[in-house]
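Key result, reporting period 2: structure in, sequence out.
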């Protein structure tokens, strides 16, 4: 946590920026919907997405083994989404 005087100074800078260029201040404080979606993806969801895209790519390229492996991986990871890995 910052000291009180530094927080006050940052607040002054923020207020000054809002007064001088409100459009820029809004862009700096808002998060785009794509960025929000990316931040909400868990590593498991990302693995499912990558495996599914890889399966479709292999399907179009005629690689049956790769498509099968990627599809099985995507299904297994998706099916295990309720399980938690605990390292003890």
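The corresponding designed sequence is given below.
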């Amino acid at each position: 946590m910052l000291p009180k005087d530094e927080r006050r100074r940052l607040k002054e800078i923020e207020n000054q920026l809002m007064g001088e260029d409100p459009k820029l201040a809004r862009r700096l404080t808002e998060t785009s919907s794509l960025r929000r979606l990316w931040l909400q993806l868990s590593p498991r969801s990302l693995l499912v997405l990558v495996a599914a895209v890889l399966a479709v790519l292999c399907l179009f390229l005629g690689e049956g083994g790769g498509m099968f492996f990627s599809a099985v991986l995507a299904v297994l990871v998706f099916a295990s989404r309720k399980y938690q890995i605990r390292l003890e």
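The helical segments are 4-20, 22-29, 33-40, 43-61, 64-79. The two ends are 32 Å apart (CA to CA). This case is discussed further under Risks and Mitigation.
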